[in-house]
């Protein structure tokens, strides 16, 4: 294996996906930002959920909102549903893994809240089920996905689709776009002023 070539190839691939993402997601990004801001201004909350690396991103973005991103400020209500191990394991045991996020959305979601499902394929059954539940509760539904979007764009009010096939590249763009949404939200709501 040529580690030097691998290093260069990976960064070139990342740069290409970054350029394609920049060219294809700006309008959706701005619409998501407006929806996040409207929800927060109405005293609502943002629920994140995903599996594996997407679960890590959900937890990461929730923490950025609850604690801080750019500067100290008032907390923004956000929850990563995949962090409650008791609810996850009880739900998986009693209802099946496909229902673990939908059940939490049913319990915690309110009209006007935002539900953000993350799935690189756009087909994760438990993420899809949660978005459907969120829609039935008059929540704003959002998808972070990749490839061809899977089925999530059909059930999401807004879908950020990273134009890549590789899971790692899609996840890299998800956390980048998520960070950008957190920062832009603070700025839009004038929460990050000096």
Description:
57% of the residues lie in helices and 13% in strands. The chain has seven helices and five strands; from the N terminus they run αβαβααβαβαβα. It has helices at 3-41, 53-66, 85-95, 100-108, 125-136, 152-155, 167-188, and strands at residues 46-50, 78-80, 114-118, 140-146, 158-162. The protein has a five-stranded parallel beta sheet, with helices on both faces. Helix 2 packs parallel to helix 7. The protein is globular and about 50 Å long. The model has no long low-confidence stretch (mean pLDDT 96).
Radius of gyration of CA atoms, rounded to a whole number:
17 Å
Q: Return the average pLDDT rounded to an integer.
A: 96
Report strand %: 5-15%
Listing every helix as H and every strand as E from the N terminus to the C terminus, the arrangement reads HEHEHHEHEHEH
Cα separation of the termini: 49 Å
Q: What is the helix tally?
A: 7
The chain-level structural class is: alpha/beta
Proportion in helices: 55-70%
Strand count, sense and barrel status of the largest sheet are: 5 strands, parallel
Strand neighbour order, sheet with most strands:
2-1-3-4-5
Low-pLDDT residue intervals, each spanning 5 or more residues: none
Shape: globular
* Total number of strands: 5
């Amino acid at each position: 294996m040529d580690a030097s070539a691998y290093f260069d190839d990976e960064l070139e691939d990342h740069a290409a996906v970054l350029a394609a993402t920049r060219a294809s997601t700006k309008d959706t990004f701005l619409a998501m930002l407006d929806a996040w801001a409207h929800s927060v201004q109405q005293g609502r909350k943002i629920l994140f959920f995903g599996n594996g690396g997407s679960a890590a991103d959900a937890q990461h973005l929730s923490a950025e909102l609850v604690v801080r991103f750019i500067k100290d400020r008032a907390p923004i209500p956000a929850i990563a549903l995949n962090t409650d191990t008791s609810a996850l394991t009880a739900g998986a045991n009693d209802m099946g893994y496909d229902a673990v996020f939908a059940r939490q959305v049913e319990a915690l979601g309110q009209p006007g809240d935002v539900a953000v499902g993350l799935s690189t394929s756009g087909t994760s059954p438990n993420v899809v089920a949660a978005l459907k539940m969120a829609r039935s509760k008059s929540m704003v539904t959002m998808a972070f996905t990749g490839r061809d979007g899977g089925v999530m764009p059909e059930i999401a009010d807004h879908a950020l689709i990273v134009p890549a096939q590789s899971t790692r590249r899609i996840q890299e763009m998800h956390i980048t776009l998520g960070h950008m949404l957190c920062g832009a939200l603070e700025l839009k709501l004038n929460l990050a002023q000096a």
